[in-house]
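Hey, quick one: can you model this chain's 3D structure?
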Amino acid sequence: MEVGALQGQITIDEERLRVSVPAGITYGALAAFLQSRGWALHNLGSLPHISVAGACATGTHGSGATNQSLAAAVCEIELITGRGRRVLLGDDDPRLAGAVVALGALGIVTSLTLRIEPTFDIRQDVYLNMPWRELDKLDEIMSSAYSVSLFTQWNGVVDQVWLKSKCLDGVSIPAKPIDGATTATGPVSPTGDDHENTTAQGGLPGPWNERLPHFRFDRFPSHGDEIQSEFFVPRRFGLAALSALEQISGSFGNHLIISELRYVAADQLWLSPANNCDSLAIHFTWKKHPGEVRQILGLIEETLEPFGGRPHWGKWFTMDASRIAMLYGRLPEFVALVREFDPDRQFNNAYLDRVLFGGSET
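Sure thing. Here's the predicted structure for all 362 residues.
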């Protein structure tokens, strides 16, 4: 279905500050629709090309010390269960917290309702080559703008610092300079590619939907031919986790395009990687070396295990159900929800078996 047709199914409830959308619409299309009518979402991911349903189902996020995952904006979800029953869960139903980040295990999501707010502008400032020692001030740096992303190749510096600052009352306030780093004199790409696909930098204010993502909706995003992985650790363990990864970085540097560090605020969604925990999300964009990356991921997961590292559901990881079960206290309740919504296991697959059920019946 074309984007325009999906946009025709969007309904804004201005009184309740909510928007209802078809599951398949992309964030880029939804954001443009909202912006044209004076509304906004609280945050966006780095790629606006992803679908609303897919992003919410996997706990996908943007950045910001006080910004929750994209799924946390969901206040209503409609789905078709394994036996063909239509179910609508609102924010007065305790099951909603288990049904948003659900990996497709409960049924076919047909629509979602998200919280919205008045539109706002963002300016984006980029700094280069921040000394690694400045990460001792990780909390200060990551809280210095509405949305902050740090990019590194684990080579002794933070190659790029992207600060996305909210304009207040129409006033664009420059981001605070980063100690030891230099201001980028022109646009840059986080992946080292041509910057033509990135959103406007250099402190130029613009609407939220054209600044919060790293990549433009009308261009091909990121590096392209790549593999992605990401792990969430509690913010209180952030520095220790980064130090541990730095010590093994020599084992993965030849296969890495770039790593990105972001903060994600805690939410109460049962299977969200940020469930009940303010988190540091450590992302890896890998070269397309699948065999080597699989081996590297085992080492990274082992390194992050003492810090309770949770994998991003929609990216590569090697953990199985036995390890993941130790990371999610609400998992038994989710399994009960699967029994309720899909008793015949119509939506089960090899991935769900590996990461949630261990090959056993629910």
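One thing worth noting: Residues 325 and 332 are 9 Å apart (CA to CA).
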